[in-house]
Specification:
Its main location: membrane. With about 200 residues, the chain is mostly helical. It has one domain. Helix content is about 75%, strand content about 0%. The longest helix is centred in the first third of the chain and has 25 residues. It is globular, with a radius of gyration of 16 Å.
Length: about 200
């Protein structure tokens, strides 16, 4: 397939960013409804939110601010601007949704599977339109470039620390269900994301 046929236009990117941000926001609503945690910068933001009572949206927006310069250096202006827009849109939607979306009783297994699928779908859409929702992967790439230490290991270590910290705020069973959701999310990405075609 030629490069011309694999590129997205402005309207394609707009709907991709909107879809990814909205579905990710629904995933965040489900996650916080269940008291679950997750990895990456979203996981850091949700732990801060649980610990302080601050809203996830503003915390997530602020947590991501330091990573935009790294994103610009590593992936360029287009990636950085799209990622900023996606994070800002998600942060806004998460502030609006609670008055318009309510969950009832959900079995933790179903919630974990649904959370992984929703968030994986959202991230795939964002990746395929040259955007991202978190900066830890970018940090991992910088460390890899500088030292040779694999970026994937950096992300894994960060996530392991997050889940360990989550045990201070959540019970073991909740953290275990959260871990299952994270596994499903990563499987969705690993199986469906074409790194040779898309940027992130």
């Amino acid at each position: 397939m030629s490069e011309k046929n694999t590129r997205h236009g402005m309207i394609d990117d707009a709907q991709g960013l909107a879809y990814g941000s909205f579905v990710a926001a629904v995933g965040v609503m489900l996650m916080t409804h269940m008291g679950f945690v997750t990895g990456q910068t979203a996981g850091l933001a949700v732990l801060i939110s649980y610990a302080t009572g601050w809203g996830f949206g503003p915390v997530f927006f602020v947590v991501n601010l330091p990573f935009y310069w790294l994103g610009y250096r590593r992936f360029g202006l287009g990636f950085t601007l799209k990622s900023f827009l996606a994070v800002a849109l998600l942060s806004l939607i998460v502030q609006i949704l609670p008055s318009r979306l309510h969950f009832g009783e959900i079995h933790p297994l179903v919630a974990a599977l649904l959370l992984g699928c929703l968030t994986g779908s959202a991230l795939l859409a964002l990746f395929r339109h040259g955007a991202s929702l978190g900066g830890i992967g970018i940090v991992g790439l910088y460390i890899q470039d500088a030292t040779g230490f694999r970026a994937g290991w950096t992300q894994l270590i960060f996530d392991a620390c997050l889940f360990a910290a989550a045990l201070l705020l959540r019970d073991v069973e909740t953290v275990a269900w959260s871990f299952l959701g994270a596994v499903v999310l990563n499987l969705v990405i690993a199986i469906n994301h074409r790194r040779d075609r898309y940027i992130a």
